[in-house]
Amino acid sequence: MKAFAMTTYMLFKHYFRDRSSVFWGMVFPLLLMSLIGLAFGRGESISFTVGFVGQGGALAQGLRTGLADVPVFKMTDEKEEASALAELRKGRRTLVIVVPPQGSPEPVRVFFDQARVQDARTALLILEKFISDANLRIAGVQPAVRLQATGIAAARGVRFFDFLLPGILAMTIMNSGLNGVTWVVTEYRKSLVLKRVLATPVHPFAFIGGLITRYATTNLVQLAVIALVAIWVFDAVIVGSLVTLTALALLGTLVFVGMGLAISTASRSPESANLMGSALSFPMLFLAGTLWPREFMPAFLQPVISALPLTPLVESMRAVAARGETLLPYIPGLVYLAAWGALSLVVAGWRFKWE
Amino acid sequence: MRTAGPIVQVRELHKRYGAVTAVQSVSFDVIRGEIFGILGPNGAGKTTTLEMIEGLRRPDGGTAVVDGVDVRRDPRGVRAKIGVQLQEAGFFDRLTVEETLTLFGAFHRRSAQSGRLIDRMQLGEKRRAWAGSLSGGQRQRLSIAVALVNDPQIMFLDEPTTGLDPQARRNLWDVIAEFRQEGRTVILTTHYMEEAQRLCDRVAIMDHGLIVALDTPRALIREHAPSITIGVTVTQGQASFEALPGVRDVKTQDGEVRLSSTDPLQTVHALMDLNRQGSVHFQQLRVEEGTLEDVFLQLTGRRLRE
Asked: What does the DSSP assignment read for A167-225?
């Protein structure tokens, strides 16, 4: 226990005294985030996907035609209320409008995504204005004051960084394992530091456990710094549970550090082990929905994307951070992710060389 | 726990790497409190032998018992009792000298105060310096401080002075000699015959994975390099040195006539007679004993470092 705790503590110090690791662990993700933000976060017009459930009649038809003319609404016709709400829960709709049948005393009902308060609020404002306009028009009153919706672009920016932040966090976790561990462990082995450790009576699990725990600790520090900067500078919002997010970060660290350890057994030189790690991390960075939605990628790649271990981490972290969802629908993916970690740790334990 | 008899017992240890036999068969005992040297050229199997005894490498066969603990049964038990200084092993470069000792101290059940070790190894000025910034001599001293961190009764030093300048080497010899005064047992490898000769109580000479001789340096020299060299610088005259009593061989090197003698007393007497008669004049006469280098040459037909 003494050996484990001291290893964690000393390796933590050892890490933060290395400027390049601080750059790759904190500055680089933030740089990437601002660059991607510059590229995708601006210049695009705002649009909300609105589900429309019309149950027949002139009112429904009139509303539907009118709403189609609202430029920021992308209207989708839904068969029934239940399926529309299911889409809303998956985060694919901003609003769902349910119009009662002709002659019904029921009001027009609107459902919105509570997790995406910013978006929903904006879309609701626009809808409310539309409805009041319609009421005035039906009553035959000429509006004395006209209001124009503004400030929408800012809301769009926030939404993009809300989306981007969890991806960047997942990327940082992956890199700490595939690019960090691969280098660090082979370097310790090459310089015979590991052999010096082996020459003591310390239990291997205490030392390796200390090493993994130091990665968990440094990752949490890095992720906290990245998230705080993203919140302060880019107005990103984390709506879900921080505890759940931390748990996901720890699981991800264990998996990718395990993969890094497994890769480091395949090579003697830090350079080639690091290259092998990068050969895995780079494609995942671009494919797994890390920086942009995976739907942007062609259909034939989708099965490949589903098979990448980073994908479930990105998806679950995004579901929690950006949409405040529970983890329940993501459990199969997380089990798949954990299986990668378990397999990697078994390979690492079986093939690990101290010199 | 003090047991009677040898503190380290090595019996028929052997190790192969694929087709290469690193250690053919090695057996020896180390007596408590002595400095035991393994002398041999690079590639003789010294390091492999040491690492099998330390429990860092699994032998293909044979046994090593260190202070009552069988290394094949309980390698970590052996490592708890010994101090190991590895050849050219690195440190965590961005930990200070003090932190390095604290970390390695935590790997042992009991550990010495790092402050005392730092003073002892003369690293006081470098206490807060990163290990990566130390000079070769300082690294070597830190390496020995790490080996001392559990206050071991048995120390294994693998080529402790390789790569050091002569001053740093002498300093380290003093440190190692102190270990003997403290009652510690030291097992070291070296390819410097001077180191073995000055430091070791007994020396095992190793070549091609075998111990070819084992004894005190003096006894080894007496047995394997008994002839004594007498060097004379002739200023005037000539003589047939081959005919002098005891002389087996005559060579001229750098203006010095070097006589190899099996009976140095008789040879020197004869030389003195020649000088007194005035037939030959010497400027200088010196008598040299054989060295472990000569022993190695005699046993293997090769020099230690070629």
From this structure: HHHHHHHHHIIIIIIHHHHHHHHHTTHHHHHHTSS--HHHHHHHHHHHHHHHHHHHHHH
pLDDT at B5: 79
Mean pLDDT for B238-263 is: 86
Q: Which residues of chain A have pLDDT under 70?
A: 41-46, 141-158
Handedness of CA B227, B229, B230, B234 (dihedral sign): positive
Q: Looking at residue A41, what is its pLDDT?
A: 60
Q: Where are the alpha helices (DSSP H) in chain A?
A: 2-16, 19-22, 28-40, 58-68, 81-89, 117-139, 152-175, 182-190, 193-198, 204-234, 242-264, 270-287, 302-307, 310-323, 331-351
The answer to whether the Cβ–Cβ distance between A192 and B90 falls below 8 Å is yes
Is B90–A201 a contact, with Cβ atoms under 8 angstroms apart? no
Provide the ipTM. 0.86
Token pair for residue A265?
Answer: 């057994």
Contact A2 B106 (CB under 8 A): yes
Angle subtended at Cα B301 by Cα B298 and Cα B303, rounded to the nearest 5 degrees: 90
Question: What pLDDT does B162 receive?
Answer: 87
Q: In chain B, which residue's Cα lies nearest the Cα of A6?
A: B103
- Cβ contacts of residue B209 below 8 Å, gap of 6+? B14, B21, B22, B23, B24, B25, B26, B44, B45
Split at pLDDT 50, 70, 90, the class of B126 is very high
Give the homologous superfamily in CATH for domain B8-222: P-loop containing nucleotide triphosphate hydrolases (3.40.50.300)
B91: nearest CB among A2, A193, A202: A193
User: Is the separation of the CB atoms in A50 and A73 below 8 Å?
Assistant: yes
Q: Does the CA dihedral A224-A229-A232-A235 come out positive or negative?
A: negative
Q: Where are the domains of chain A?
A: 2-41+157-351, 48-150
Range with the largest mean pLDDT of A91-95, A123-127, B189-193, B250-254:
B189-193
Average pLDDT over residues B77-99: 94
Contacts of B71 in chain A (CB under 8 A): none
Sign of CA dihedral B24, B29, B33, B39: negative
Question: Which chain A residue's Cα is nearest to B88?
Answer: A192
Residue A181 has what pLDDT? 94
Lay out the sheet containing B247-253: strands in order across. B247-253, B256-261, B228-237, B280-288
What CATH number should be reported for the domain whose range is B227-289? 3.30.70
How many CB pairs lie under 8 A apart between chains A and B?
A: 71
Residues of chain B with CATH 3.30.70: 227-289
Task: Give chain A positions within 8 Å (CB) of B98.
Answer: none
Q: Report pLDDT for B98.
A: 96
CATH topology of domain A48-150: D-Maltodextrin-Binding Protein; domain 2 (3.40.190)
The answer to whether A200 faces chain B, any CB pair under 8 Å, is yes
Comma-separated ranges of CATH 3.40.50.300 domains in chain B: 8-222
Per-residue model confidence as pLDDT tens digits over A165-184: 999 999 999 999 999 999 99
Q: Report the range of poorest mean pLDDT among A323-332, B29-38, B143-152, B267-276.
A: B267-276
The closest of A242, A228, A236, A256 to A312, measured between CA atoms, is: A256
